[in-house]
Specification:
Elements lengths: L2 E6 L3 H13 L3 E6 L2 H10 L4 E5 L7 H10 L6 E5 L4 H7 L2 E2 L2 E5 L4 H11 L3
Parallel strand pairs: 1-2, 1-3, 3-4, 4-6
Antiparallel strand pairs: 5-6
Helix pairs in contact: 2-3
Length: about 120
Amino acid sequence: MSIPVYIVDDDKIFAEVVEIYFNSLPEFSALAFSSSHVALSCILAKPPSVLILDIMMPEMHGDELAERIREAGINCPIIVMTGLLSPDEARHKNYRIGNRMVVGKPVPLPVLATLVHQALGA
């Protein structure tokens, strides 16, 4: 059985590239969303095992989306991507907020896959 991973990023092309990459890995089944509100509805209906989301989005910021998910009682690991920190800054700070791991964008896809495995405790 594959591990459901959701990607939420207002950059539709980036979200789709990440979705395609994770779907190319046999252990994952990925869905991409470019709308925070659509993603929230889907997450509430069928929570993923891991959520990858952008922090700066026009409709609803990643932090707000994460808060709404937590308020609904969904406790899947969340990896937050941000262009506000470079990948090196994020690594050096080992920045974590609650159950959310924060990484700088751009993040190489194999590194993102490793972070998902780490978030799952694999």
